[in-house]
Amino acid sequence: MRLLARAIGFGLLLLAALLPVGAALVLLALDGPQALLALGPAGWVSLAAGLLLPGCAALLAQAWATQRAELAELRRALLRQAEAGDSRHLVLQAMLAESREQTSLLQEQVRLQLGQANAGRRQAETLQALATETRLARLVAEWDMTGRELAAVMAAMWRLAFGWRTAEGPEGRGAVELPLPAGAELGLAILRLLPATPEDMACFQVDERFVRQAARYRALFRDFLDRVPETGPVNRALFRDMVQGRLDARLALLPRPNHAITVPPETLAAE
C-alpha cells in the first residue's frame, strides 16, 4: 500500500509538472511565439508558477517523507535503546540481589567463624586453666611427698645433733626421750643450730653423718626445685623463701661429704 501510494503521488506530480509545459507547447504550436507574448506578465507568472510549483512541492514532499522516515528510525532506535536499558536495568537488579545474598552469606559465615573462634578461645582458656590446675595439683602432691622425705632427713639431723634422750638427772631421775619439734619448728631448730656465715661454718665442728644427711636433704630439695617453674603463681622463689629453702641455703655452707670415711647406713641417725 505504501509503494502504491508513492507511485500514485509520483504520477500526479509528474502530470502537474507536464501540464504547464504541454500548455506552452500548444500555444507555440497554434500561434507561435506571439501567443506567449500575448499572455502578458500575469500569464508569464502563472506559467512560471506552473513550472516551478510542482518541483517545489516534490522537494517539500521528499523532505517531509525523509524527515518522517528519519523520525521513525530515530523512534525505533530510541525504543531499542530503551529496551536495552531495561534489560541492563533488570540484569543490574539481578546482580545487585545476588550481591546482597552473597553479602548476607558472607556475613553469616563471618559470624559463624567468629563464634567458632570465640568457642575455640574459650576451650583453649579452659584447657589452659585445667592444665595449670593439674600442674599445681601435681606440684602440691609432689611437694607433700618431698616434704615428708625432708622432714625425715631433718629429724635424722636433729637426732644427730641433740640425741634421743636427756642425760640422767640428779636424785636418781632417769633419762627421758627428747621430743622432736613439731612442724616448721624442726627446720627452725636446725637453722638456729648452724652458723649463718661461711667463716663461722668453717670453724664449726660437724659430724660426717650430719654432713651426709645434709647432702641427702639438699639433693631431695634440688630435685624437687628443678621441677618447679621459674614464674607463675607457684614458682621457685616461693619455695626458696620457705623454711626448707632457707635450710637448703644454710646447708650449702657445710663441707662436702668425705666418702673416704666409711659410715654404716644404720648409723646415719643417732642411736
From TrEMBL:
<protein>
    <submittedName>
        <fullName>Uncharacterized protein</fullName>
    </submittedName>
</protein>
<keyword id="KW-0472">Membrane</keyword>
<keyword id="KW-0812">Transmembrane</keyword>
<feature type="transmembrane region" description="Helical">
    <location>
        <begin position="47"/>
        <end position="66"/>
    </location>
</feature>
<keyword id="KW-1133">Transmembrane helix</keyword>
